[in-house]
Write a structure and sequence with these properties.
Number of strands: 2
Low-confidence stretches: none
Helix content: 55-70%
Mean pLDDT: 84
Distance between the termini: 48 Å
Oligomer: single chain
Largest sheet: 2 strands, antiparallel
Strand content: 15-25%
Number of helices: 2
Length: about 60
């Protein structure tokens, strides 16, 4: 039973941190009126295009 509590505490904390981070970023972007494509363009829009390796898979970004 102790292992279950430890797993819930461990994975639950990561879920909560991710959820709070998503809320903060969503509110910040909504307040600034920015969209994801606008932010990508500010950081060199063509830099994100091409073939990428992510989590063991190759994917094309356009």
């Amino acid at each position: 039973m102790t292992a279950l509590y430890t797993a819930i505490l461990y994975f639950g904390s990561f879920l909560v941190i991710g959820w709070v981070g998503k809320l903060v970023l969503t509110r910040w972007m909504r307040r600034r009126g920015a969209t994801l494509s606008e932010v990508n363009d500010q950081f060199g829009g063509s830099a994100g295009k091409g073939r990428r390796f992510l989590l063991g898979f190759w994917r094309n970004e356009s």
